[in-house]
């Protein structure tokens, strides 16, 4: 335990463990590790102000790290992120089902090196600092007599110290030493704790059950005993972002980024597209089981519920991952195919507002053909106002709503919003909207149009 160690020995144990990391070595460039390294340097130097400064810098790095708060301790949260969430070579190969013996041995060594970090708390670190400062304050200062005595007993020179004037000149010629605090208080105001009360309402990760089991086992056992369990986690659930979410899209730089799970809204429109939803669900379940399935083309006007139909799939099938590809992202998708193919997961790739005239479509089609990257864990679903390419062997048509359906859906949305508006008012508002759009030749009666009518009715009621 660090609290039982001599301050220099404790600091050396932490620093040596840092230098001994191999697979997890990239984490040394993370802000928390950089700040901890700087703090240990200040501790070695006996720089009290430096320790105080770096402690607060480390605390700031932990607070802004973005690590999910699951353990009740900021530093342990960061370590859990490094161990289970942060991508590394061991996790990457495990997600492809590959066990590399030398890599596993190196990762096991890293797990052993993490032992002193897992016992590090804000209190134990503060104790190391104060013990080091106390040790320096208690170190005896030597005057002329003590220098002469030491020299005599050691058999060295008995030459006296320089004169006071010579000593002063020598001091001025030397660079200033770090200023040492006369006293470093352990008061919480000066040294904020990393402990906090856990949030019981934390939004779960998609791999929450597997991660919770690893957190629990880490409390009971040493990290080095979890090598096989960590490999199994990544072999089953993937790495990094795939542990956290089921919805993804492309960032501006072409990398895959997570979308909030709140996008999986409870959209109740099955009564209008029940047959289409059932066909899509059956096809996707076959895909999830590794059985014969078809790439899907969903045809419908803007606002007809094409995206909602796909998100409903994700809500009903928790093992499914959905990668949303907005217009202009086909190049990023082509570049990401290898990453998707190697993941131990099944993906619906949703091409929203898809057009077959996209110049990159032939390249994507070729890549997904049996002669290309062809992958069994990707199902393509395209949505468009135009008609399908023959690559999509299953086509669904989301027709515009009939007027009575439009009125019923509008009433349903109002009831879900807690608004009990007279049915005649709802009916008249829907008829007026249909008449206006019919005259202008604008959008037909769709689910999105119904939401617009709802907003107008609520505004009038207010």
Key features of this structure:
462 residues, alpha/beta, Rossmann fold, 3 domains, 7-stranded mixed beta sheet, 20 helices, elongated
Q: How are strands sequenced across the largest beta sheet?
A: 2-1-4-5-6-3-7
Helix content: 40-55%
Q: Which segments are poorly predicted (pLDDT under 50) over 5 or more consecutive residues?
A: 145-154, 178-182
Radius of gyration: 32 Å
Residue-averaged pLDDT: 85
Shape: elongated
**End-to-end CA span:** 64 Å
How does the major sheet shape up? Answer: 7 strands, mixed
> Structurally, how many domains make up the residues?
3
Give the total of beta strands.
7
Structural class of the secondary structure composition? alpha/beta
Strand content: 5-15%
Number of helical segments with 4 or more residues: 20
Care to give the gist of this entry?
The chain is of the alpha/beta class and 462 residues long. The protein has helices at residues 7-19, 31-45, 48-63, 74-85, 89-95, 101-113, 115-118, 122-138, 144-154, 164-173, 208-220, 227-237, 241-244, 274-288, 306-316, 330-342, 361-367, 403-416, 423-440, 447-461, and strands at 247-250, 256-258, 296-300, 320-325, 346-351, 378-384, 394-398. The protein folds into three domains: 2-129 and 193-197 and 205-243, no CATH class; 257-398, 3-Layer(aba) Sandwich (Rossmann fold); 403-461.
Chart the SSEs and their pairings:
Layout: H1 7-19, H2 31-45, H3 48-63, H4 74-85, H5 89-95, H6 101-113, H7 115-118, H8 122-138, H9 144-154, H10 164-173, H11 208-220, H12 227-237, H13 241-244, E1 247-250, E2 256-258, H14 274-288, E3 296-300, H15 306-316, E4 320-325, H16 330-342, E5 346-351, H17 361-367, E6 378-384, E7 394-398, H18 403-416, H19 423-440, H20 447-461
Parallel strand pairs: 1-4, 3-6, 3-7, 4-5, 5-6
Antiparallel strand pairs: 1-2
Helix pairs in contact: 1-2, 1-8, 2-3, 5-12, 16-17, 18-19, 18-20, 19-20
């Amino acid at each position: 335990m660090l609290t039982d160690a001599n301050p220099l020995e404790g600091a050396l144990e932490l620093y040596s463990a840092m230098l001994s990391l191999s697979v997890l070595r990239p984490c040394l460039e993370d802000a928390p590790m950089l700040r901890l390294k700087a703090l240990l340097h200040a501790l070695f130097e006996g720089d009290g102000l430096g320790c105080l400064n770096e402690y607060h810098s480390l605390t700031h790095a932990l607070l802004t790290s973005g690590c999910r708060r699951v353990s009740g301790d900021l530093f342990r949260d960061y370590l859990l992120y490094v161990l289970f969430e942060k991508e590394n070579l061991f996790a990457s190969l495990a997600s492809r089902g590959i066990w590399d013996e030398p890599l596993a041995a190196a990762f096991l060594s890293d797990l052993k090196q993490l032992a002193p970090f897992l016992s590090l708390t804000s209190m134990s670190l503060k104790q190391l600092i104060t013990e080091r400062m106390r040790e320096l304050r208690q170190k005896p200062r030597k005057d002329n007599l003590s220098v002469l005595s030491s020299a005599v007993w050691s058999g060295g020179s008995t030459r006296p110290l320089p004169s006071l004037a010579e000593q002063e000149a020598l001091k001025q010629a030397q660079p200033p030493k770090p200023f040492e605090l006369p006293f470093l208080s352990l008061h919480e105001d000066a040294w904020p704790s990393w402990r906090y009360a856990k949030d019981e309402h934390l939004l779960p990760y998609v791999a929450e059950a597997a991660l919770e089991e690893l957190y629990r086992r880490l409390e009971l056992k040493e990290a080095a005993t979890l090598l096989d369990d960590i490999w199994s986690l990544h072999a089953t659930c993937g790495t990094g972002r795939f542990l956290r979410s089921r919805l993804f899209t492309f960032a501006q730089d072409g990398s895959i980024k997570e979308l909030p799970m709140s996008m999986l809204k409870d959209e109740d429109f099955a009564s209008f597209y029940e047959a289409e939803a059932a066909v899509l669900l059956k096809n996707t379940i076959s895909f999830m089981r590794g059985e014969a399935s078809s790439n899907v083309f969903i045809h419908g006007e803007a606002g007809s519920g094409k995206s909602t139909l796909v998100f409903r799939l994700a809500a009903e099938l928790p093992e499914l991952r959905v990668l949303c590809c907005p217009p202009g992202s086909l190049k990023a998708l082509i570049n990401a195919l290898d990453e998707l193919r190697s993941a131990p997961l099944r993906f619906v790739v949703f091409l929203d507002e898809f057009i077959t005239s996209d110049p990159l479509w032939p390249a994507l089609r070729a890549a997904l053909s049996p002669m290309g990257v062809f992958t069994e864990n990707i199902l393509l679903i395209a949505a468009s106002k135009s008609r399908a390419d023959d690559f999509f062997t299953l086509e669904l048509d989301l027709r515009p709503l009939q007027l009575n359906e439009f009125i019923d859906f509008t009433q349903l949305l109002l009831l879900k919003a807690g608004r009990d508006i007279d049915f005649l008012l709802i009916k008249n508002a829907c008829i007026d909207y249909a008449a206006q759009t019919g005259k202008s030749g604008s959008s037909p009666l769709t689910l999105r149009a119904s939401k617009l009518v709802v907003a107008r009715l609520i505004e009038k009621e207010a």
